[in-house]
């Protein structure tokens, strides 16, 4: 399956056994999104997704090597708007830094699954978040 970008669905387990998802704001409109970026020639896709999580959200951890799914979103480019496909990799957060590369450009926040689903606009990404409880264990 051909994808344009890779993304990290960053999760952590709460004391009550439930999961939370880390969302960040986009630089352009301030929408809540997951860390994502272009595929990298010198990195495997899951490694590139982990790098995006580190640069955009200041988190690192254990990333799954296979994607948990794909979603598409509209990207504004010079020629207009085009749809980009993102392969999403699950990342269990083990470390969260107070300072990171894009700290001045984005906000980050942890959301319970239901709250994260309400914030995300892309239907396929909402579906992936709904499935976190089952796939993250």
Q: How does this model look, in words?
A:
The structure is a single chain. Helices cover 24% and strands 42% of the residues. The chain is an alpha+beta fold. It has one domain (5-136): Nucleoside Triphosphate Pyrophosphohydrolase (Alpha-Beta Complex), CATH 3.90.79.10. Strands 1, 2, 3, 4, 5, 6, 7 and 8 form an eight-stranded mixed beta sheet that branches. The longest helix has 13 residues, at 45-57. The protein is globular, with a radius of gyration of 14 Å.
CATH class: Alpha Beta
> What is the rounded distance between the termini?
26 Å
Average pLDDT, to the nearest integer?
Answer: 92
- CATH architecture descriptor text: Alpha-Beta Complex
Largest sheet, if any?
8 strands, mixed
Name the poorly predicted regions: none
Give the amount of beta strand, in percent: 35-45%
Can you tell me the overall shape?
globular
DSSP summary, beta strand count: 8
- What percentage of residues falls in helices of 4 or more residues? 10-25%
CATH homologous group name:
Nucleoside Triphosphate Pyrophosphohydrolase
| Class by alpha and beta content | alpha+beta
Count every helix, treating DSSP H or I runs of 4 or more residues as helices: 4
Please give the domain count.
1
The name CATH uses for the topology is Nucleoside Triphosphate Pyrophosphohydrolase
Would you list the SSEs in sequence order as H and E?
EEEEHEEEEHHH
